[in-house]
Design brief:
By secondary structure, the chain is mainly α. The protein has 9 helices and no strands. It has helices at residues 2-11, 17-24, 28-34, 38-61, 66-81, 85-92, 103-122, 132-148, 155-166. Helix 1 crosses helix 6. The radius of gyration is 17 Å and the shape is elongated. 30% of the residues are buried. The model has no long low-confidence stretch (mean pLDDT 84).
Length: 178
């Protein structure tokens, strides 16, 4: 899977399974036994990331301040995928993913994020109509900024602008452009 991430980072959607096998130092048959299609490989990469997002959300949920918890989960999730072009690519072609392999991880993440969001809504720091689905949509926007302008687009500024629209304007945004 690491070889897949590296090749997707270098070649984007043009990465081929035989190149991934060679990069990993294994035969093509080995790759196809584990991942029968490129979409299956991308799905596994996304499944692993969703597990990581759940771990990030779990830590953020322990943050006492609801606003900080919300901002932290968005920032840390974005940082986790900053250099992962394979994940970014998968999110932009989400309709091609084999979501059956990810449903469990997505459900775990949804439960944790929904609690973080509801706590922030109840505290009045996040707009009252914000949902888990909105979170996913916004994070896909951030990952597309990373994908289409790697190294040159300022995804942190993109995130700050998004948060400015979602959060109560009373607090300062600490996600300034770096």
């Amino acid at each position: 899977m690491c070889a897949g991430r590296e090749l997707f980072a270098r070649e984007g959607p043009e990465a081929q399974m035989d190149e991934i096998a060679a990069h990993a130092g294994v035969g093509i048959g080995t790759v196809y036994r584990h991942f029968p299609t490129k979409e299956a490989l991308l799905t596994e990469m996304v499944r692993v990331r969703f597990e990581e997002f759940a771990a990030i959300a779990t830590l953020a949920e322990d943050t006492a301040d609801p606003r900080d918890a919300f901002e932290t989960v968005m920032l840390r999730s974005a940082e986790a995928v900053e250099g992962d072009v394979g994940f970014q690519l998968a999110m932009m072609g989400a309709d091609q993913l084999e979501w059956d392999g990810i449903e469990e991880q997505k459900a775990v993440l949804a439960a944790i994020l929904s609690r973080i969001i509801q706590r922030a809504v109840t505290a009045g720091v996040v707009r009252e109509d914000f949902t888990f689905e909105d979170f996913g949509m916004l994070m896909c926007g951030i990952t597309s900024t990373m994908y289409y302008k790697p190294g040159s687009a300022d995804w942190r500024r993109h995130l700050a602008i998004i948060l400015h629209g979602v959060l109560d304007p009373a607090g300062d945004l600490e996600l300034q452009s770096t």
